[in-house]
Amino acid sequence: MNTSKELLKIKNLHTSFRIKDEYFAAIEDINLTLNENEVLAIVGESGCGKSTLATSIVGLHPEGNTKVEGEITYGDRNLTKLKEDQLNKIRGNDIGFIFQDPLAALNPLMRIGDQIAETLKYHTKLSEKERTKRVLELLDQVGINMPERVARQYPHQLSGGMRQRVVIAIAIACKPKIMIADEPTTALDVTIQAQILDLLSDLQEETNAGIILITHDLGVVAEVADRVAVMYAGQIIELAPVEELFGNPKHPYTRSLLNSIPQIDSENDRLEVIHGMVPTLTKMPRTGCRFGPRVPWIDESKHETNPQLHEVGQDHLVRCTCWKDFHFEHEEGGLNHELHAN
Amino acid sequence: MWKTILRRVLLMIPQLIVLSLLIFWLAKLMPGDPFTGLITPETDPHRIEELREMAGLNDPWYVQYWHWITGAVQGDFGDSYAFKDSVSSLIGDRALNTLWLSLFSVILLYLIAIPLGIYAGRYQGTWFDKGTVLYSFISYAIPTFVLGLLFLFFFGYKLDWFPTSGTVDVKYEAGTWDYFWNKVYHLILPGITFALLGTTTVIQYLRSEVIDSKTQDYVKTARSKGVPMKKIYSKHIFRNSLLPIAAFIGFTITGLLGGSIFIETIFGYPGMGQLFIQSLGQRDYSVITALVLLFGFLALLGSLISDIVMSIVDPRIRIDN
């Protein structure tokens, strides 16, 4: 898969938000590539910067209080340097967006058909009639029965799954080369989730698009992703092909995440948790290993002072060196620590 | 939709009956009757008693109520004791004047408030926004009679740009363009006063709605489609921001039809508000009860209009299906 064409290259991306008069980096030092026909999953818990990364790519942040630095190369252009009207030609046309909550993502006062046609209006030369025809095709393509009827309806008249299909229809209207899906299945029932993921895979087969899938659902990742980037506190802490990540996770955070998935055949009644919380934006430690405070039983000397991504295997990157000394609390070393603490 | 409207109108009937009973009861509770004012030391008590008997004031309350309400349904509210004219013709003249004033004020109000609210929300935090907010607070804080008197003094009296009372000069003949423009000319000062003081709610609602809408996900979706910000404001944010305005537009309109007591009194404008305050002063019960009943009816109508407008603007609350 990695031999195919590179669509998007993110280099040293920093995005900071202004809080009062200071800028705080929500994501730092992001380096990623997205290839054709690939699903790159970005996982992490709430507040780790997943969505910030997604919206940074085409500059969808509120104007005025956001700073995006670094390089996002699409084709021969650096997206972080483009002006709003240049970005508008790329948004929706080359890069399609799918948002989390399909009810909120649609304008409640606008008919479904008009909302899809709006994308076509700004990126194609189709006449109004042709646009209407294309809207019906798109609705059909995303698996909506009776497209004529649905096109005339309003968002509140559709079910959650249908709304997400409409959101996808908007995203694919101009056959984008890249699709960014920000938690596309989070707000949906499990059965609908599977349908939506199938739909995305089918669409990808047709267009060879690269998909950036943002999620906190490791089940979804295992099902559809080719490569996975795990984010913690604004940084990528582990990046690996999907089989490698699930089979041979290295970073303490990745291992803790996988460990906290409830197993149906486990005899342990208790859910494994990760101690502590993700630091907030203003309280983020700017030096040292950011995961350090959540694994206090690892000696400080085992962390790097300025943790970098290191290659530990074929296409497998891990930040910091603390993974070498990591073990779960209930394991040998952890037990000692607990005894000491008591 | 028509079915629902019809149902709502039919529902208004029992509401109006309850209201009319309440009003009638309150009117009866008030001390004295129309003949109390006529009593002098020389009056023969028997004569008063005869008059009372003739007017039906000695009948049981339900008979009196029945007389009043059957007349009211046919538009006959009896005669005004103070004006020596039938209540309905009295209200009819004033209602038309108030209608013109309301229409003029409401159009002016929205013309001022909608752009201010939308732009203040759009350019939140700029000097324009701060100025608009300051203006809206000032206009909210100034009592009607203060601004009314100031306008009357400067533009009416000192500068002599506008007439200080009345609805139209007597020299013009009804039906001509001159007559019409003269009417508008008389409306300007009270209309502006009213509009300037009424803008606060509309501005504040719109501004906060626009600010709120900007962060909504559907705006993000629109941006992700590549729609320019200017179009997002005109196509997506504007309409969504108007929802709360639509929600109380019916009340605004019918509220205005009740007339503004302050403005009509200050500008000597013979409308419903002025009539109401005069009748109160003169204990003109037949006029007061008729007006209160009418105000109640307008309030009910206002909520109906608001619901209809809302259902047109917001598909989520279509009355049917």
UniProtKB/TrEMBL annotation, chain A:
Alphabetical list of Gene3D superfamilies matching this protein: P-loop containing nucleotide triphosphate hydrolases
Any one biological process term the GO annotation gives: peptide transport
Localization terms from the record: Cell membrane
Gene Ontology MF term list: ATP binding; ATP hydrolysis activity
Domain ABC transporter: residue ranges: 8-258
Uppermost EC category: hydrolase
Pfam families: ABC_tran, oligo_HPY
PROSITE patterns recorded: ABC_TRANSPORTER_1 (PS00211), ABC_TRANSPORTER_2 (PS50893)
Domain of life assignment: Bacteria
GO terms for cellular component: plasma membrane
EC number: 3.6.3.-
Entry keywords, A to Z: ATP-binding, Cell membrane, Hydrolase, Membrane, Nucleotide-binding, Transport
Primary localization class, coarse: membrane
Membrane topology: Peripheral membrane protein
Family: Belongs to the ABC transporter superfamily.
Protein name: Glutathione import ATP-binding protein GsiA
Phylogenetic lineage: Bacteria, Bacillati, Bacillota, Bacilli, Bacillales
TrEMBL record, chain B:
Stated family: Belongs to the binding-protein-dependent transport system permease family.
Subcellular location(s) per record: Cell membrane
GO biological process, one term: transmembrane transport
Domain of life per record: Bacteria
Membrane-protein topology: Multi-pass membrane protein
Naturally occurring in which organism (per UniProt): Kurthia zopfii
Classification via SUPFAM superfamilies: MetI-like
Gene Ontology cellular component annotations, sorted alphabetically: plasma membrane
Transmembrane segments: 9-27, 99-121, 133-157, 184-206, 242-267, 287-313
UniProtKB keywords: Cell membrane, Membrane, Transmembrane, Transmembrane helix, Transport
Entries under Gene3D superfamilies matching the protein: MetI-like (1.10.3720.10)
Name the record gives this protein: Glutathione transport system permease protein gsiC
Chief place where the protein resides: membrane
Domain ABC transmembrane type-1: residue ranges: 95-306
Pfam family, one: BPD_transp_1
InterPro entries: BPD_transp_1_N, MetI-like, MetI-like_sf
